[in-house]
Amino acid sequence: MKRILMVTLLLILSVTSICYAEFKNPNPDRWITVSADDMHGCWYDKETIKYIRETKSYSPCHHHKIVRCWVMMYDAENEKFPVMKLYTDFDLNCRTTKENHIMAYDKNYKQLASLDVSFKSPEPIVPDSIGEYLISIFESEWEKHNKK
Questions:
Q1: In this predicted model, what pLDDT tens digit does every residue of 65-105 receive, in sequence order?
Q2: DSSP letter string, the chain
Q3: 46, 99, 141, 146: which has the fewest Cβ within 10 Å?
Q4: Does residue 21 register a pLDDT over 70?
Q5: Cross-strand pairs, 73
């Protein structure tokens, strides 16, 4: 009887620890921290950064400098989708962002949704925001990348 009780107790403890797992920051060898605390965080993936120029001649942003990469956002207050990865274009000339794809996860990184939002229009960067900070990082990185 004691063994059954111990096994049952161990099973309950192992299940509850999985259910209440804390969010863990992403791999620092890959994800560069922009801002992070216990409740919120933003990182960009240095492995997916692409420095490109807009090549569509019909685009109003033709020849603009575009930085494309994955950005991860964490918001502990968002109970439904606390972790989101956004495949984003940062237009350094227009100072806009455009999400192309959104992946939503729970805080254990279990995928909950995947959305293609490439049809959406670019949005202006909000002053004094993380987006503006990212644009400033990518502007300096653009110069370093294109001097090679």
A1: 999 999 999 999 998 999 999 999 999 999 999 999 999 99
A2: -HHHHHHHHHHHHHHHHHHTPPP-PPPTTTEEEEEE-SSEEEEEETTS-EEEE---TTSTTTT-EEEEEEEEEEETT-SS--EEEEEEEEETTTTEEEEEEEEEE-TT--EEEEEE-TTSPPEEPPTTSHHHHHHHHHHHHHHHHHT-
A3: 146
A4: no
A5: 42, 84
Q: Say how far apart CA 29 and CA 20 lie, in whole Å.
A: 26
Q: Which residue has the tokens 């994955």?
A: 70
State how far Cα 46 lies from the chain centre. Answer: 11
How far apart CA 74 and CA 108 sit, in angstroms, is 12
Largest CA distance in the chain: 76
pTM flag (> 0.85) = no
Round to the nearest angstrom and report the end-to-end CA distance of the chain.
Answer: 71
Q: Is pLDDT at 115 greater than 80 in this prediction?
A: yes
User: Quick one: how far is CA 117 from the chain centroid?
Assistant: 15
Q: What residue type is assigned to position 140 of the chain?
A: S
Q: Which pLDDT score is estimated for 10? A: 45
